[in-house]
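A protein record in our archive is deliberately plain, so that people and models can read it alike. The tokens are whole numbers drawn from a learned vocabulary of local backbone shapes. For reference, a complete record is included directly beneath this paragraph.
>
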Amino acid sequence: MKKDDGTSEEDGEVFGGDSYHDLSSNDLSYSDHSLVTSGPVHDWEEEKTTDFFDDGTMTYFWRAHTLTTLVFMICFLLYEALTPPDEDMVDNTKRGLVASVSAFILLGVTVTPDGPFKRPHPAIWRFTFIISIVYELGLIFMLYQSASGARQLLKHIDPKLGEPMEEKDYGGNCHLYDQENPDDPYHNIKDKTDLFVPLHFFGWWLKTLLLRDWWLCWVISVMFEILEYTLEHQLPNFSECWWDHWIMDALLCNGLGIYCGLQSLKYFSMKTYHWRGLWNIPTYRGKLRRIMAQFGPYVWVDYDWKPLSSLGRWFSMLGIIAIFLLAELNTFYLKFVLWVEPGHWANLVRLIFILPWGAVALREVFQFLDDPDFMKFGRQSWLFLAIVCTELLIVIKFGWETVTIPFPSHVVTLWMTIFILLVLWTVWNFYIDPYTIKVDSKDIERRREHWSQVRAIETKLSPSESRLFDPKVFFDKFMQKGSKED
């Protein structure tokens, strides 16, 4: 009989165990704009009291192995200490900095507490968190340099960096069909189809998985196109044709990315999460499926942001949108003021790390806003906010001549109109409109119960002292199982 994960009973249950971790759309409602969530249909009290048998394959895999890590680090440092010294001062300085940063990363990955995400391994998320600390420290150091000094620092990463570059202008001839060029009348479309096309598509696919809300994705997508119109007098590559803005970027690339992201959200939201230890699966095919499933979520939590549920939540959502857009703008301004080519690997590395930082930060922010018992602002959220603000300060300091270029009058009029309409709508919705849905005590209790369920499941995921791998216990259980089969 086929299961929802594609395995059969003969393969062994990939998502096996003593009970199901089924947070379906009925339990954690996948809602794009609804202000009301349905009550739980799963027996969570029974779920909390279920005793899970751990065969040791997960707890041993998840342990930090602090002593083993320390031994390897000491051995490496011992090798460096016994190696004949190099008289090159510059090379020694670089190697010393790399070793210091590596030791800090190793220490952080080993001792830093786990965050909200633990798959495929908690060490991966601890690593990305420590990298965000290193990146923020690097930004602070760069902030104390001059513009030319900061560009020269980048040459230590890659000698090709820090050189003046020519920004590509995407405006100019905006004809879809250029009759003046009969040999290649569609050259305008071909010229504007570059690296940013796949980046837009895959970027918004992943951003949708981060935001987990269709309206929030579309608001940010449209607002960024408006910001490109607003800032095209400062950055030449923001000057695009109208069809490049709204058809190629917003509708095709961003729209298809958001659609694929929503389909992925529906898949994760409706999926039944049911896990077994690897060695409890009898067949190699089932074990392989279980290993692949390790790279998916342990349990899925949908984000029902409820932006209109309260004035505080509304302002919080405006803040999330603003920070998201600012992080997007920093990508373009940083490469402009630091002279980093758009196709350089440094830009890609930054974008790759921003995705897990943003994923954890959004989860922490959502729980901070939605969980009545979660009173602490998340550490990754705090650090992500610090990174975005520090990047902005670097842009302002090194690109002062660029960011102080006066805005055209029509741009000022546009944003004044948007601001006034936003203020008027906020006053109407939260102070005048009698039909606005207010948060009541039942909603608070419903959210408290919801997050207690999530914490109960996440607690079972983490290896506790009582469930650490004991070889003797595992061997006894293995022998008992073999005797029963005989």
